[in-house]
């Protein structure tokens, strides 16, 4: 087995000392990179790129060639599970994801299969195996899934939504039906993440992009309880090492204590939350990931430098921090500004580690 040459990210998630704060960027492989756009054009559409193990591996590695990042993230999407359930995923140009067969009725939910991760989703596992081989132990590989709630929003709405009308109608009119859907998604996500670990993923992340649109009791019942089942159900140890899991609920700053109580290793924070407050609340229990506003990367280098300084000071000295953006990098960011950001985190953070 290839030894892992850089374990800063894994050490930070276990709240062990590191020499500098590890950093990776949400959506680090993507359209802001010209080399990504070239491979994407070669593949045809986005899902074709996800299904092609060598090309998915290539775009996963592109940001690591440009920048000294401390982790790689599998190039795929959270919507692979609903697609494998037969919903007919497509990405129309510039309009986001669309499902040809949205889930609206008890019959629709009952008909959904739990996908076999090495069957319909085998292309994802092939990508994981290819990336692990090509990484050659340079940095750990993060596997991921969407949270059941976030996947359900796309499946019921039929795509992206601003109002979440249909899924909220289901939540308040037919809660048992929504629970049946979330239950099936939870089983599917556990199988999917465990297969990613078996294929070589060394850490896991759950993206709950839309948990923040819920009331507190609805968040607990319809999102967090299912994420807790996933935390309890996934492989937490592989290749002689812990496999840490990070939960990210966008807009979930008010629920950090509840999220930490799931027994996860890390919490992803969006930029609206204070890193210092979050550390005081849950920093003894979990590692915090984040949380620079991705829009800071539109600024001049001096402003980026100052914002990195502010965030490092807010977290303060010691371990348990993974630097990241508070959400995905914007597609119109200048890659040089991203490079400056990463270099500044690494340069400035050394003073915070003994
Ligand atoms: O580098 C990485 O972070 C790994 C790859 C990754 C993608 N999507 C690639 C992608 C990851 C981790 C995701 C997660 C994802 N996908 C989330 C959760 C994280 C978040 O951003 O909140 C969500 C909500 C999705 C669903 C999704 N996929 C949407 C809404 C869209 C369209 C919006 C857009 O940016 O065009 C996608 C497509 C998508 N997923 C792209 C990429 C690089 C753009 C596709 C393209 O090249 O045209």
Automatic annotation (TrEMBL):
UniProt xrefs under HAMAP family:
URO_D
Q: What role does it play?
A: Catalyzes the decarboxylation of four acetate groups of uroporphyrinogen-III to yield coproporphyrinogen-III.
Lineage, top ranks: Bacteria, Pseudomonadati, Pseudomonadota, Gammaproteobacteria, Aeromonadales
Record keyword Membrane present:
no
Binding residue positions for substrate = 27-31, 77, 154, 209, 327
Q: Which residues form the Uroporphyrinogen decarboxylase (URO-D) domain?
A: 22-31, 142-158
Name this protein carries in UniProt: Uroporphyrinogen decarboxylase
Indicate whether rRNA-binding appears among the record's keywords: no
- Whom does it interact with, and what assembly results? Homodimer.
Q: In which pathway does it act?
A: Porphyrin-containing compound metabolism; protoporphyrin-IX biosynthesis; coproporphyrinogen-III from 5-aminolevulinate: step 4/4
Question: Hey, where's the site called Transition state stabilizer on this chain?
Answer: 77
Please report which protein family the annotation says this sequence is part of.
Belongs to the uroporphyrinogen decarboxylase family.
Q: What is its EC number?
A: 4.1.1.37
Q: Where in the cell is it found?
A: Cytoplasm
């Amino acid at each position: 087995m290839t030894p892992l040459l850089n374990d800063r990210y894994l050490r930070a998630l276990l709240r062990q000392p590191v020499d500098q704060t590890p950093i990776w960027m949400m959506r680090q492989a993507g359209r802001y990179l010209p080399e990504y756009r070239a491979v994407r054009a070669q593949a045809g559409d986005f899902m074709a790129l996800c299904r092609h193990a060598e090309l998915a591996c290539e775009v996963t590695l592109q940001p690591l060639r440009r920048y000294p990042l401390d982790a790689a993230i599998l190039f795929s999407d959270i919507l692979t599970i609903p697609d494998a359930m037969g919903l007919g995923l497509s990405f129309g140009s510039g309009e986001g994801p669309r499902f040809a067969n949205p889930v609206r009725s008890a019959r629709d939910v009952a008909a959904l299969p739990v996908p076999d991760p090495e069957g319909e989703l085998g292309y994802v596992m092939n990508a994981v195996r290819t990336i692990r081989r090509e990484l050659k132990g340079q940095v750990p590989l993060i596997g991921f899934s969407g949270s059941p709630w976030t996947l359900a929003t796309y499946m019921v709405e039929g795509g992206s939504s601003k109002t979440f009308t249909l899924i909220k109608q289901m939540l308040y009119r037919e809660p048992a039906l929504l629970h049946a859907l979330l239950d099936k998604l939870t089983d599917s996500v556990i199988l999917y993440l465990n297969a990613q670990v078996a294929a070589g993923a060394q850490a896991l992340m759950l993206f709950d992009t839309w948990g923040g649109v819920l009331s507190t009791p609805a968040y607990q019942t319809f999102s967090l309880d299912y994420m807790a089942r996933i935390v309890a159900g996934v492989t937490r140890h592989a290749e002689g090492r812990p496999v840490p899991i990070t939960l990210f609920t966008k807009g979930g700053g008010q629920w950090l204590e509840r999220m930490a109580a799931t027994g996860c290793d890390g919490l992803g924070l969006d930029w609206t939350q204070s890193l210092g407050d979050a550390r005081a609340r849950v920093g003894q229990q979990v590692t915090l990931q984040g949380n620079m506003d991705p829009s800071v990367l539109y600024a001049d280098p001096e402003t980026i430098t100052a914002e990195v300084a502010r965030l490092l000071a807010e977290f303060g000295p010691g371990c348990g921090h993974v630097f990241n953006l508070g959400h995905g990098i914007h597609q119109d960011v200048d890659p040089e500004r991203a490079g400056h950001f990463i270099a500044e985190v690494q340069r400035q953070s050394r003073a915070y580690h003994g």
